[in-house]
Write a structure and sequence with these properties.
This protein is α+β, with helices and mostly antiparallel strands and 89 residues long. It folds into 2 domains: 31 residues, no CATH class; 34 residues. It has 1 helix and 5 strands. It has a 3-stranded antiparallel β-sheet, with no helix packed on it. A two-stranded antiparallel ribbon has the order 4-5. A hairpin with a 5-residue loop joins strand 4 and strand 5. It is elongated and about 75 Å long.
Length: 89
């Protein structure tokens, strides 16, 4: 981890496109400004962690639902033969 000391109004640059500026220092808090391209997601760490946990839970729920979806839809699929005769799967 790189540790830097900055004062209000000073910045750091990450890569070629991200600039983080110390906007204000007040007591035990600092306010940061992040200037980054719109296609780059910028989140507070606790929000990022929450989103990742929710995505993981949703993917587990979806994976568990797939067999049931396949089971319920398989009986309603109609197969078409080239000669036009339909056959229930």
């Amino acid at each position: 981890m790189l540790v830097l000391t900055r004062k209000a109004g000073e910045s750091i640059v990450i890569g070629n496109e991200v600039v983080i500026t110390v906007l204000e220092v007040r007591g035990g808090q600092i306010r940061l400004g992040v200037d980054a391209p719109r296609n780059l997601a910028v989140h507070r760490a606790e929000i990022y962690q929450q989103v990742m946990e929710e995505n993981q839970a949703a993917s587990i729920d979806a994976a568990e639902a797939v067999p049931e979806i396949l089971r319920t839809t398989a009986s309603s699929i109609t197969l078409r033969k080239p000669n036009g005769d339909d056959q229930q799967a």
